[in-house]
Structure formats: structure tokens, C-alpha cells
UniProtKB/TrEMBL annotation, chains A, B:
InterPro entries with a match to the protein in the record: GAF-like_dom_sf, HrcA, HrcA_C, WH-like_DNA-bd_sf, WH_DNA-bd_sf, WHTH_transcript_rep_HrcA_IDD
Alphabetical list of NCBIfam families matching this protein: hrcA
GO biological process: negative regulation of DNA-templated transcription
Keyword Transcription regulation assigned: yes
Keywords associated with the record: Repressor, Stress response, Transcription, Transcription regulation
Name of the protein: Unannotated protein
Ranges of residues in domain Heat-inducible transcription repressor HrcA C-terminal: 104-319
GO MF: DNA binding
DNA sequence: GGTTGGCACTCGCCCCTGCAGTCTGCCAAT
DNA sequence: ATTGGCAGACTGCAGGGGCGAGTGCCAACC
């Protein structure tokens, strides 16, 4: 474990570096009020901190820069999220009092809020459709051999699957199929489509064409459990300013464009509550200059999804943590109201 | 108008500058095969081209750089879009043979294709819902005072509006309202919701609660004619590499995040067919280092939407033009098939 | 008259140098 | 254990010289 004084010095270095992005020297550390010893003593301690892997020197006779381990210590001893500033909490309050409308629109707007609060990129992952129950299933004929299955879920999400058929269909058959399938699945979770007992029920349908439609529809519900359209990203322009190499920016944008990466990344930390992944801890080499602050949000007592911000490793962790924590909390409450 | 030789020289300068991003000198122009005169002559012509505003000098005794006017001439005399390279057209073909599924998924995938082909950011604007007819209207009760109206349109798009009610609702009333409204609007265009005759029809509904639901639903259809969810953007990471100032990149990303700007921008050129906006021609000061190549796509004989790429002013116009033209053409055909 | 080679000139770029500043590591003193 | 002092290392910046690319001009040429 770290000496009390070393901890203070490390914290001072990290704080200063986050602010200036410049290597921090012993002289500068000596000026901060919490530090009462001389710069020589600080030098000794900083050398020890470097030996222990908390700090690094870009080159001899330069100041020190935090390593991932250094940031990790800094974040851990930060404890919980701090309070939000007055103007920020005002922003959050007015957002949640004004927002309304569709689930997806709200989630998309939430990325705006979060990125506005933190000046970093915000990621919001919507609730997986699995937790909701099916409110309604409707089959619409778009073309003689093309039908569209429209699912309405209890959380207000709407899913649709188009199905190509082998034969032309009859409106009457579709209506019948629509009714059969509603009877089977409405009120259940989406997972019900996967239950084996369903196949027996389907085989009981007398009419061949109707059975075909029902079977294909159920099959499409089984297959297309995609996580798509669940991830919302906002404020990429904000974060860019934190980096100076265009190549780095390009890499990060590439990662963000492949939304799947972000999803798995966020889900990995889903049951840990509010948490931070620093640099390579994100599991992605390309994000080694980035940190990710994530928190799940809870709807009706269940962890429903997660939100987070992606910024540089030298991000303002306290602000980011509070912003993410507060927004996750308020979002969960808002969605619980319905 | 421009001298034949001056045109060749201008073209050479633009081509070279697009390739290298470095000011082009008379000596370099003299090496291109199409130019048969000496560098001294080229110098004279380049001075004239500068006087006419086609070229500019970053500083005395440097090479020349094209101005917007220079790019404009270059693009205009390029004539139509060229052919696509073999591997590119292969890419397009395999994309359109494989792609399937929802309209929106396809449009989103198209941005991937376009940005992959051009290495620039791709923008795809979906068909406005106004042109499609209503296939089905369904009202689902999400909570005692919250209903969701789900519209299925003939092009496979699904629109939803949630409506907060003042009183608790009865399933039977909702079913009745659903039926009434279907009878009124199914088969018509979305614009039908705006017709004044509809109000008379609504007032004929006897039951008060049913009439209330119908009226609110129609009202929501009138109001929420948003262009949202129609714009797809992809390949932002590609374009970033074309710029060297992080600040520029940030500006451009900011513009892209405000999708509305892009929409209006693309719609301005919608009826002009395949077209190019260079630098300030885009109408946006922040995009003065960018060019936009756009083309509408035609579904069932009607201009349905547009696609485009956003790149640096020194973009490979010929490739971008062909890619946009070909993809717009194929996309339109694909969507016409249904 | 248009075109060309030659030439002087301009300027940005790069490299080198020197200087100021900063920070470290070490050591002797406290 | 802590401190002040000091030498050494290295960056960053400013200034100067050489280099090279490119221009504009001019006289000569077809």
C-alpha cells in the first residue's frame, strides 16, 4: 500500500496532469497546499512512485506523467462520485422535466445531455428487449410475398421483422395467423418464442398456409434477437478536442462506429455498478488513451441498461463519475414511471 | 472562358493537389504527359489563372493551390461520373445481392458501403414518410393513461407515437378507436391526416372516450411529421484522416451530429440530380474545407431520398461521383423491387 | 505574338547552435 | 527522515545559414 504522503503527491500529480496535459515536476507539486514538504522530498517520493509503476517519465529530466496504475489508484481513492455542480444539476433537472416521448428518442437525447455535461462522448445502451413482455403482435402484408411482423413491447419499444414468403398470401390467412400468434405470445416475454413447447402449439394449426406464416414468424423472432438499435452515441465532437493526433481520433471513431464493441464493453461491467475502465482495462488496444465511465440504470428494480462516457485517460474523473451516476439514477427513475 | 491549355494546366494542378495536398509548382505540371509546353509558359498561365481566381498561392515563391472556383471548374469539366473500378463495382454488386431486411437497416448499411467505397463520410437520407400510404394503424395500451399508436407504411417503415391521456382508458374503447381510425386512414397517404374533412368524420363518432382517442391520435399524426430517424451517417472515421487539424475535425463532427443541417443541405440539391457542393457552396461556413457530393435516388419513378458523401475539398471527385451515382441508382432499383 | 531558356530573387523549411528554463538525482547537512 | 544545494540532462525556443523549390521577368527565338 501507499504511504499517506505518497498518496497525496500522486493525487497532486494526477490532478495537475489532468488539467494541463503537461508532465508535472516536483516543484509544481510543492506549491499545492496539501503538500507541506519540500520539492527534494517530493523528488524522492516521485522516484519511488515511478519505481512502483504509478508514474512514468517521458524522458530523463522531465516531469512525471501518471500511468494507468496511477490513474487507477487515483480513481479508487476518489471513493464514490462527488456532487454535481449547481449549473450541471440544473441542466439534468430541466432535461428530465422536459423530456418526453418515445423510449428511443429519450435515450438518444440522454446522450446529448451526458456529453454536454461532461464534454466527452456519451454512450447509452437501451434496455434489452428480452426483459419486456409482448404487448401486441401484428402481421401486415406489404407485398404478395412479403409480410411485416410488428411487435409492440411493454416498454414501448417497437420491433419489426420482414419475412419473405414462398407463396402469395391471402389476407384472411394472415389475419388468422396474426390471431393465433397473438394468442400464443402476447403477455409473455420475448424469450417465450424460444420455448420448445411452442412448436407443438404451432403444429396444431390446421390450415397449411396459416401454419406456415405462424411458423416463419416465430422463427424470425427466434433468430433476430439482435442488439441493434439499442446503442446511442452522442457528442463525438466534444471528445475529439482532448486529443492532438488525428490518427488517434480516427481510431477511436472507428471503434465507436462498430457499436457492437461498445456494447460488449459496457455489458462487461454491467453488474459492477458505477465503474471505470482505464486505458487498456477497456479491453481494446485502440482505446489505450481512453477511459470509460459506466453505470447501469435500474428500471422497476431491475438493471435495464447502462450509460457511460468515453474520454481521454486524463479525464475529469470526479465530474464524469458524478454526471454518469446522477444521469443513470434519474434516467432509471424516469423510465420506471413509464 | 478558359483557354484550352489553361484548362489542361488547371486540371493538372487540381489533380496533383488532390493527390499530394502540397502546393503544385510549374515544374511539376510540366512533367505530366498532357502538357507539352515548358515550365516558363506554365508559369505565365498559372499567373493568369491566379489573377482569374482559379488558383491561389499560400505564400510568394510557393506552388499554387486550387481555390473553390478552381475546384468548381475542375468538377464541371469532369462531365458526368466516370466508371467505377472493377473491385468497387464488385463491392456494390455483392452488397446489393446480399442486402435484405428492413428499409432502415438497408439504408444504414448503405452508408457503410458508400463510405467504404469512397473513404469519406457517407450520408443517406431515407424516403420521407409522406410518399408512402398507410398500411395499418394499431393502438396499443401501454399503461392506463398511456397509449402507443403504431403505423405501418407501405414502404415497410414503422412509425410510432406515444400519447398521454387525461383519463384511464378501456381496452374496448381503444379497440373501437383503432377500428374507426383504420377505416378512415388505411390506404391513404400520411397527408390524409391533415385533411380538414377528417374532423367532420371524427365528430360523427358517438362514444365520447372513443372520439377522444381518435382525435388525439389524428392530432399526433398531424404534429409529429418529423424528419427524424431518416438520416444515416457512416464512415466518419474515414474522413478524419483527410484533415490534419483536430479543431477542423471537431467542427465537422459537430455539424454531422446536428443531423438537421445535413438534411436541409441535401434537400437543397435534391431536384438537381447528381451534384457537387464545394466548400462554402455547402452553405455552411464550418464546412468550408469540405465538399459534398449528392444524388437523389428514385423509387418507382419518384425521387425518394438522397445519398451523398462528405469529404475534403481536395476529394477524389471522379471516384466520389461515380460511387454516389452508382449506389444511388442501385439503391433506387433495389427499393423499387420492394 | 506566343513561347522558351536563363537568371535573379523570394521564401519556407530544415538543421544547427546557443541559451534559458526546468526537472532530476545525488549528497552533504540538519 | 528531511532538506537545501548543486551538477547534469534534456526540452523548448529563438536566431542564423544553407538548401531547394518556385516564381517573375527578360531577352532571345520561332
Amino acid at each position: 500500500m501507499l504511504d499517506e504522503r505518497k498518496a497525496i503527491i500522486l493525487r497532486a500529480v494526477v490532478t495537475e496532469y489532468i488539467e494541463t496535459a503537461l508532465p508535472v515536476g516536483s516543484g509544481h507539486v510543492a506549491t499545492v497546499p496539501e503538500v507541506t514538504v519540500s520539492s527534494a522530498t517530493i523528488r524522492n517520493d516521485m522516484a519511488a512512485l515511478e519505481a512502483d509503476g504509478y508514474l512514468a517519465q517521458p524522458h530523463t529530466s522531465a516531469g512525471r506523467v501518471p500511468t494507468e496504475k496511477g490513474y487507477r489508484f487515483f480513481v479508487d481513492q476518489l471513493g464514490g462520485p462527488g456532487r454535481l455542480g449547481a449549473s450541471e444539476s440544473q441542466q439534468v433537472r430541466s432535461f428530465f422535466s422536459q423530456t418526453h416521448g418515445e423510449l428511443e428518442q429519450m435515450l438518444a437525447d440522454t446522450t446529448q445531455l451526458l456529453s454536454g455535461l461532461t464534454r466527452y462522448t456519451a454512450v447509452v445502451v437501451g434496455p434489452p428487449h428480452e426483459v419486456a413482455t409482448i404487448k401486441s403482435i401484428q402481421i401486415v402484408v406489404l407485398a404478395p410475398r412479403l409480410i411485416l411482423v410488428v411487435l409492440v413491447l411493454s416498454n414501448g419499444a417497437v420491433e419489426k421483422h420482414s419475412i419473405d414468403l414462398l407463396h402469395d398470401v391471402d389476407e384472411a390467412h394472415v389475419a388468422a395467423a396474426s390471431q393465433r400468434i397473438s394468442a400464443l405470445l402476447v403477455g409473455q416475454g420475448l424469450a417465450a418464442a424460444g420455448s420448445p413447447g411452442l412448436d407443438d402449439a404451432i403444429s396444431l394449426v390446421e390450415s397449411d398456409p396459416v401454419r406456415e406464416i405462424v411458423a416463419l414468424t416465430v422463427a424470425s423472432l427466434r433468430v433476430e434477437h439482435r442488439q441493434d438499435d439499442h446503442v446511442f452515441i452522442g457528442g463525438t465532437s466534444e471528445m475529439v478536442a482532448s486529443f492532438d493526433a488525428v490518427a488517434t481520433v480516427s481510431e477511436i471513431l472507428r471503434i465507436l462506429e462498430q457499436q457492437l464493441v461498445v456494447v460488449s464493453l459496457i455489458e462487461n461491467v454491467l453488474d459492477r455498478g458505477l465503474s471505470v475502465a482505464i486505458g487498456r482495462e477497456t479491453g481494446n488496444e485502440a482505446l489505450s488513451d481512453c477511459s470509460l465511465v459506466v453505470a447501469p440504470y435500474v428500471v422497476d428494480g431491475e438493471s435495464a441498461g447502462s450509460i457511460g462516457v468515453l474520454g481521454p485517460t486524463r479525464m475529469h474523473y470526479d465530474q464524469a463519475l458524478s454526471a454518469v451516476a446522477v444521469v443513470a439514477d434519474r434516467l432509471g427513475k424516469r423510465l420506471s414511471e413509464g
